[in-house]
Every structure is written in structure tokens, then in C-alpha cells.
Amino acid sequence: MIRLSTIGHIALVAGAICSSTGCGRSTAGSSAPKVDQLFAQWNRSDSPGCGVAVSRNGAVVYEHGYGMANLELGVRITPASVFGAASISKQFTAMSILLLGERGQLSLDDDVSRYVPNWLDREHHITIRHLLTHTSGLRDGFALLGWAGPSDVSPNEAITPMLARQRGVNFEPGHEYQYNNGAYNLLGRIVNVVSGQSLRAFADANIFKPLGMTSTHYRDDPAILLPNRVSGYSQDTTGFHPASEAVGVVGNAGVYTTVGDLLLWEQNLTDARVGSRTDIDSMQRPTTLIGGGTSAYGYGLAIGEYRGMRTVEHAGGDRGIATNAVRYPDRQLAVVVLCNLDTIDVTRLTHGVTDIFIADAPTSAGRGAEAVPQSEVSLSPGDLAAKPGLYRSSTSTDRVMRVSVDGKTLLARSLYGDDTDLQLSPVAADRFRMPGTSNMLVFRAPNGTQPQGWFVANADGRPLASFDLVTYSPLIKDLQSLVGDYHSPEIEVTYRLTLNGSILEVRAPGRPVIAIQPVAKDVFAGDSVGVVKVFRDARGAVLGFSLNRDNARGVRFVRVGWAG
């Protein structure tokens, strides 16, 4: 038996003898140098990087590693390196549910309440199928946990009872598509309830081992040792920094795997060795919504198109993780890219590899479907000075965006979204490219008919959304009327609103004081809490407020006391 220490030693030796072009094997001939060039900027001894694998007709034609699996130990990435897959995990959770359905242990049309004790919402009839297709309308459990107080309970154990306490939904089940990590975590719990096994044990026995995916596991315990596991990194202006996902959270994420193992799974979507042909086909079929229309998501897989070719894929991202696995069914080609740097544009790299291996696919814009980005320009502090501020959608008080300056860079943050700063790249004094998209943010100076603002435009310049500068300023007496304590039984936490001069502040357990800015009458916005909406009785007395994010809407807090 080989001990873990011996395996680690072998990995170190293998890393030391890899050539400067990376570690791996290739049968792709002239394609290899082109892939090397695509990943060249990360293929260094001082940078994280990626594992890459390509299969055609079920046979591996390219496998390689670029950059470092661990910067501290000097270990290179190889095809045997084990990466966190993040949301690629969802397709394995979906298959676990489908296998239980094939055995008659559950039905996709069962109400979730059948499998979760004390499920309070008996009105909306959320089914397992709704969870699989991201059409449940459930408030996202991770957003709810972010609003709750500190807890010794792990997120993996806390999400299901949190969801069980919810009385409201974001929308009526089946009517809309909204990506929902908490729903897939809940599916993992349902696998446990129905099978009597953990999701890790069930998937090992029924998916990974039958397919020979010997380096693939759900990492549901931080203490589990995984040979060849890479370390994750983030990057800022000071360099690379260690970063790791929330270990132990499974269902929505939690799978650790290799590029080669994922190719075995991709081939299963063609061969149906695990799972019935019917269920595998249903995984790759768009979902029909109630009231008409479809979403481009099946069961744990997204359905799309690239360069005129049908795609079935899923990407993943978390702290220290950027991943993508895509299959081109009509070309019998699969491409997997797993990276341990969360700022890498993994979709662009996946498309780049595809362009190398499928050179003859049609495109309306020459080789590759990616639009050629406009060149960046350099702006002075004076060019940026007038642009920061709080902006709200011209059609809704829910959509609130903060624009700020960081040195010579503009940052945009959606307070209705996930509090992530997006670095805007200037292509003109009033036009900024948004990362990961061909859309632009275009600045609008005030004029006689419109206030200062921004609009989002697509690559053709067509406006998609408009945001106006917030100028509303409430009276101090109106702010004073909001001071007090408020409790939410749905997330079992009490917040206090206080007034600091003219600034309304939220004091939530276990977190720094949060300043919230007025957006409109009885509407505020701030980091962490999103959009805060005050509600009153018929006489105007304050009854409470709700917290609102796009993925967790209308969480009510009821006034329970007056502070101060």
C-alpha cells in the first residue's frame, strides 16, 4: 500500500521534472503548441494555472497542466492534479437524484416538503423538479445564511432548516428561471434522506466508481485528505494570495476531480453507462416554463451554442476556483479546463481550446465567436471625478448600483446582486467595458431632461437598462422614526437600526456596522443587506422592513422595540 506521504513525494518529483511547456501528454500533434500559447501567461513557476483535457469520440486527444498547483511547495499542475470543481458539481447531484428516481425511491414531482421536516410553506408546492431546473422560486439559502447571525452549525447543516422556515418565495414555482445554489444543496440533503447515505457515499458507489473516476469525490469533510489536491488562489495588485472555497458544503458544489475524470463523465453523457438514456437526455434538455418560454438549463447542465455548434456545459467559480466543462454533442468533442486562480476567464480559455480543435465551425465574425474588444484608454482622475455615486434603475427602486473610484479605476457594485465589485475598463472617457461580457456601461452627463446616470449597452450600442443618480434626501425626523429593533422569524435574527448623525445604520449580530443610503422614500441600500424597504400601517407607523436581493426577496423583519 502506498502511503499519502509517498504519493506527495512522487508528486513533488513529477513537478520538478516537468518541462517548461507544462506537464501532460498529447496526441494532438500541431494543436499542442497552440494550446501552450493560449495558457502561456500562467505557465510559470510563480503563478497558479490550469489543467486542460480534450476528448474526441470518447478518446483523450490532449491532457496537460500549466502553472503551479502549490506556489509555496513548488508543485506543478499535471493531468493528475485534483481541483475543486465548484458548480460543475451540480450535474452529479442531479444524476444522484435521477438514479433514486429510476429505482422508484422518489419522484421528481414530489413536493420538497415530503423530505424536509417542519417545512412551513405549504402554499407554493415546490417540487424536486423545480430544484433541479432552478425554477423553484426559493430564496437562496446562502444569501439567507449571510443575513443570519453567527452560528456554530456548518452551512451544510444550516441551509435546509433555514429554507424550511421560509414563508415567501422570489416567484411562483415553475414560472421563471433563477440560478439557485441553495436549491442544489437541498437536493444533496434529499439524497441523504432517501438513500440513507451521504451524498459523498452515494455518488462514490453509484457514479464515480462505476465510471472509473477514481480521483473524484464530494469533499464533505474538511479533514479528508485528497492526494494531488491543488491549492486555490486569488490575485490583486499586490500579487497572489491563498483562497479556498467553503469546504464541506456539497450538492451545489464540493466535488474535487481531475480533467481526465471529467472526460469520463462527459463520455457518459453520450454512452449512458450510468443513468438511463431517458434521464441523461432529460439532463440536456431546456426547461419549459409555466406561461410559455423556456430556460436554457436542464438538470444540472446548461444548454447553449458556440460558433453555431450546440453545447452542453457547466462552469464553476468560487474562491480560488475557475472551472468549465463543455461538450459539443454534434462534434463528439469535450473540453475541460480547471484552474486554481479565481480571476481567470475560464470561458474564454475553453472557447480558445475549442477554436484550436474545431477550426472549421462557422462564425459570422471570422475565426472564433468572441467579439474583438475595444482597446482600453487611460483616464485621468479628473475624467473619473464626476462619475461615482449611488444610482438606481430608472424603472425600479430594487436595482441599485454604486460606482466608486479605486485609484485610476472605476468599480461598479450591484447592491441588489452579490456585493461584488466589477472593475470597469475604460475604452473612452464615457464608455467602460464590463468584465466577462461584451456589454458596456456608458456614462450620461446631466442635461435639461435627464439627471446624471449610466446606461448598459450591448455590443451594438443598444441600451439595455438605465440608472439615474440618487439625489433623494429624507428628513432627519423620518430617519429617527426608523430607529429600533426588528426581528425576522424566518432567519431567526434581530437587527437594530440606529442613527449616526444623518446616516442610518444597521447593527447585525457578528458583523461590522452597516451604513445604508437612502434611495427613495422608505427605500435604502447598503453592502451585505442589499435593498431595505420599510413598510408601514395605514396611519404611517413603521411596522418593519424587508431585505431584498435578486436571489432572496422580501425577507421580513417586524418591529419589536425602540432603541435609545
What does this structure look like?
With 564 residues, the protein is α+β, with helices and mostly antiparallel strands. It has 3 domains: 86-332, 3-Layer(aba) Sandwich (Beta-lactamase); 381-469, Beta Barrel (Lipocalin); 476-561, Lipocalin (Beta Barrel), CATH 2.40.128.50. Helices cover 22% and strands 31% of the residues. The chain contains 13 helices and 32 strands. The strands form 7 sheets. The protein has an 8-stranded antiparallel β-barrel. Helix 3 (90-102) packs parallel to helix 7. The longest helix has 15 residues, at 181-195. The radius of gyration is 25 Å and the shape is globular. It starts with a helix and ends with a strand.
Give me some keywords for this one:
564 residues; Lipocalin; 31% strand; eight-stranded antiparallel β-barrel; disordered N terminus; Beta-lactamase
